[in-house]
Amino acid sequence: MSEQPHLLVVCAPTDTVVKATPTSELVASDDLLMLGAAQGHHPAFAQLVQRYEAQVRRFAQSLLGDGPQARDAAQEVFLRLWQARGQYRAQGRFREYLFTLARNLCRSKRRRKRLADFLGLNDGETQQPLDSLPTAAGDAAWTQQSKERERLLRVALQSLEESFRTPVVLRYLNELSYEEIAVVIGRTPSTARSRVFYGLKRLAELLPHEVA
Description:
Layout: H1 23-38, H2 42-64, H3 67-83, H4 94-118, H5 140-159, H6 162-172, H7 178-185, H8 189-206
Helix pairs in contact: 1-2, 2-3, 2-4, 3-4, 6-8, 7-8
């Protein structure tokens, strides 16, 4: 397992001098820092985090509308950036790369939340992955109920007609765009969108009333 830096608490070296530079020089500096990060140089990556964390957090909040979720999203964006540092290509477009990463992550979070809300699986609370749920005796009943809901959802999904099941799975589990789904099912993007919409409605009908 690769080592991950403590992203949001590492500060740039105290002797770093911040100068006003033209945009082109700033972008080049970003690329150089990413090249350093690709070689495992944590201080270089920490400077990128220090430079852009607040911007990414504000951007995430504008998409998610929630401060705590935005902070979590910003943290995840930089974790993903660190994990993919070796694949980054220095072409003077770091900002576009970073904010595309942030946008896609926020879109994914919103899609998953909409699906959970639509199916009544959130109970007005933020979902947690099953492997992070509390396992103490006092929470055992809640955990069992959550697992039962997931089982019922899987059963209902298998009962869904294939023409609807495939687009729904591709959209919410594989996170494909409607254009990508259209290619997979051999239809237009508007048809892909329609099948996802009606697939969700049908899925809600198949779920037991106490779950849906």
